[in-house]
Specification:
The chain is mainly alpha-helical and 131 residues long. The chain is built from five helices and no strands. The longest helix is centred in the C-terminal third of the chain and has 73 residues, at 58-130.
Length: 131
Amino acid sequence: KIDDYWEASKKHLLNRPNLIQDLMDYDKDNIEDSIVTKVTEYTKNPDFEPEKVKKGSVAAAGMCKWVHAMMIYDRVAKNVAPKKASLAAANESLAVVTAALQEKQATLKALMDKLAELQKDLDAAEKKKSD
């Protein structure tokens, strides 16, 4: 049995003056699993496809597309989240290693400058000795 929410929808959803903005501002990154489970029942229903819903109402078809889009986004976000976490960890490691590399490069430059100075002094001493 599928629950009929039409009366509740008319009262609480369709009468909202900021409905479009509320949909745009919806926290799609934190959809509760219980909501996803409940809504998935509807999105799997072949009658809950935008083209079929459009026959009854263009506005309802728009809502249907939005619901499907949120469910797709949720699946993708849950798939991508661990990858984002891995990327963040890798970027942190990269920052640490890059800082260490820059420190070593600075030390190497200082040593190379010192070596060049010593080589210059050696060349000057050898030239003086040969004169």
